[in-house]
Request: fold
Amino acid sequence: MSYAQLMETIGQVNDLLNTQSILSWDARTMMPHGGHETRGKQLATLSVLTRDLLVSAATRSQLDKAEAEVAALSDGAVQKVMVAQVREAIDYHLAIPAELTRKRAELGSVGHAVWAKARAESDFAQFVPILRQTVDLNREMANAIGYEEHPYDALMYRFEPGETVATLKPLFARLREGLMPLVKAIGQKEQPRFDFLERHYPVEEQHEFALSMAQKIGYDLERGRLDTTLHPFEVSFTRNDVRITTRFNPNYMAASLFGALHEAGHALYEQGVDPAYTRTPFATDLVGLYAVGGVSFGAHESQSRLWENHVGRSREFWHRHFAEARQAYPEQLKDVSEEEFFRAINRSKPGFIRVEADELTYDFHVMLRTDIEAAMIDGSLDVEDLPEAWNAKIKEYLGLDVPNDALGVLQDVHWSSGQIGTFCNYTIGNVMAGQLFEEARKEAAIATGIAQADYEPLRAWLTQNVLQHGRRYGRDELLVRATGRKLDAEPYIAYLTNKYSELYDL
Ligand code: ZN
Reply:
């Protein structure tokens, strides 16, 4: 009985979180500019109400009773796991003083304007005072949350539970060792033809083509839709309404196409969660306070990267779908072969900007940021010395000289919102995608399916092994169940090595 009451409360928390998501989806796609200030207030109100409901005395009393009620069940029993997750989340929120959360939200609201001006003028010094406050506040946050070895571990917990500076260190070292020689070798090679991707592609045609490709991989429009935005994202309001957005550049078709495949990959995760878990802890991030079924940000990213890169940028995929691309863009692609198209969408070329980076160089941007964030938080890197540290790493990893701060340390929006600890999930997603895809392809029906443009066997495998479970298992537990081992960089490194050796004749 108490268990049922607790679950109804969590259902209400989930309703409130979904309502916030709808308001932010609207703000990022439809809302006129004038709505910003009042929308911000509406979201702040709902966010306070949600947290208050979750940690209220009434909920805690339901939780105490529910714990007693499920105590006799076996450890992995669904009810017991759900109750334990609610306990963990409530402890987490109670550990953070409300004053600290308020200060960080406040800092986030002023930080954005300061950062935007500093970036526009490419002047890091303007951003230093705000960034210093952000770092101090996050350090206080880490101390409140608690950690064993490194304060940065406490900040990553919200996005990638279980990941620590100590576990990332060997992972990053192995990735650098495996991937840096590839980047260097490609630098000596001739680049493929790229001109046709930058021809004029009308936005309406891009919308139609991107959406048709998203549907090909299984994105369900009965429970989804595609809209336009500046910074592409996926958002779900339960598994029954999972929306994606993409950005349309009339002079670069690949952005909308691969953006849509990427976000559709995220969407497939949410659309694939077991319907029985709707409005439960397994479809609610009670720590991050976000209505989402994916188990961690990295796990979520594994699904977007898997569909965008392993499937969407594969030779097999374009062998089957290039004719459709040509049909959609007869003029723009009339002098382009399937092989030329495949090589162009897989071109690897070191650049300054993370969000524009290709598959091979992307992780270097992530490792650089993660290492810098951890060093700022433990105090071994002073905020003022950031540009120097940043530029040295870009030179070491990608061989580039950063010409100014706008193209360097000021490029990302993250720190301006007060947030630290979110970058590693991109690389964890890449690594996890490599591991899952290698395992899935061992099944003949999946490999044959992909070669015949039938993505159902792969989707079924992912649903069975990852999607349906929602947040029931931790990320590594999920990986062990699906592949027999925890996070392992080798399949990802082998995949990139094979792919780029073939592409660039290394
Ligand atoms: Zn993503």
